[in-house]
Amino acid sequence: MNAENSDLRGKTEVRSEEGAPLTALRAGDPAAFERLVREHAPRMLAVARRYLRREDDAEVAVQDAFVSAHRALPGFQGEAGLGTWLHRITVNAALGLLRRKRRLERETSLEDLLPRFRSDGHREAPGLPWVESRESRLEQEEARRKVREALDQLPEIHRTVLMLRDIDGFDTGETATLLGINDNAVKARLHRARLALRTLLEPHFGGGSDA
Amino acid sequence: MTCKEFIDILDAYLEGGLTPEQRAEISAHLHLCPECVDYIDSYRFTIRAARDCCCGAEDPVPTDVPEELVQAVLAALKQDPDRPS
Ligand SMILES: [Zn+2]
């Protein structure tokens, strides 16, 4: 796989982790692209599953993503790195599918999950501080599963904004572009999503929780 | 400043935004309000929990991809009318 050339080419050549050279990919070498698919599909599938939650939809998104990547490869300059580039394309493909299925349009209320305030501006039932041992608990699969279940209870658009910003690390402007909404709408939805997620996590991680 | 007013601008506060005057008001509020200090703490934890619960771009992916998917991708590429070369 030309691995022996890597030292000679140094920084001018971007390689995927297995060493598929970008030049071969750009030139449309089918074997190089197949290696790319085998190497990156697992991560891309995991990302697509997170957005779409249905295995068949996730597989469609990964397929769409590779078709887009294949078309765009000749113009890909390699600044971002292949993995980062494919990650973005996968998120885009998953969002495209959510849009085609109109899953982002359903306006479900999350009012019930937002903090409530008394007329003097104090929170109703503020609860105890969250327990200090919780950090290490996130290393446990059981705790992470609880968080994923809580995420799944958020309305689709809020869940999607939160994943784009807090999990996939897109900034406000990038998230706005990916979703076709403005920056303020991203900020408002992210805030409500975080508030609601916090409420959903409180029984598991809040003070007095035995979980 | 009330707790509600503070929580409404919590994201901007955590990102280091807001005017010096607003930040001073918040400091004064937090000095007197342990509930909001706890709230910030749990809110930050919530953000971290979301980040850590799923595989992000950096995490290793344990799952394998079904061979049918790989074959479907390769077949889709062959049929793509817009494919380069
Ligand atoms: Zn307060």
Report what the structure shows.
The complex is a heterodimer of chains A (211) and B (85). Chain A is 61% helix and 0% strand. Chain A is an all-alpha fold and 211 residues long. Chain A has 2 domains: 19-100, RNA polymerase sigma factor, region 2, helix turn helix motif (Rna Polymerase Sigma Factor, Chain: A, Orthogonal Bundle); 110-205, Orthogonal Bundle (Arc Repressor Mutant, subunit A). In chain A, helix 3 (30-52) packs across helix 5, helix 4 (55-72) packs across helix 5 (82-100) and helix 8 (156-167) packs across helix 10 (183-205). Chain B is mostly helical and 85 residues long. Chain B has a domain at 1-57. Chain B has helices at 3-8, 10-14, 20-32, 34-53, 67-79. The mean pLDDT of chain B is 86. The interface between A and B is large, with 61 and 42 residues. Bound molecules: zinc ion. Residues 3, 6, 29, 33, 35-36 of chain B line the site of zinc ion.
Q: Give the helices and strands of chain A as they follow along the chain.
A: HHHHHHHHHH
Total strands of chain B:
0
Indicate the low-confidence ranges of chain B by residue numbers. Answer: none
Question: Describe the biggest sheet of chain B?
Answer: none
Count of helical stretches of chain B: 5
Structural class of chain A: mainly alpha
Q: What distance lies between the first and last C-alpha atoms of chain B, to the nearest angstrom?
A: 63 Å
Portion in beta strands of chain B: under 5%
CA radius of gyration of chain A? 21 Å
Most extensive chain interface and residues per partner:
A-B, 61 and 42 residues
Q: Number of helix segments of chain A? A: 10
Regions with little confidence, pLDDT below 50 for 5+ residues of chain A: 1-19
Give the ligands present: zinc ion
Task: Tell me what the CATH architecture of the largest domain in chain A is.
Answer: Orthogonal Bundle
Fraction of residues in H or I helices of chain B: 55-70%
First-last Cα distance of chain A? 50 Å
Main beta-sheet strand count, sense and barrel state of chain A: none
Strand-residue proportion of chain A: under 5%
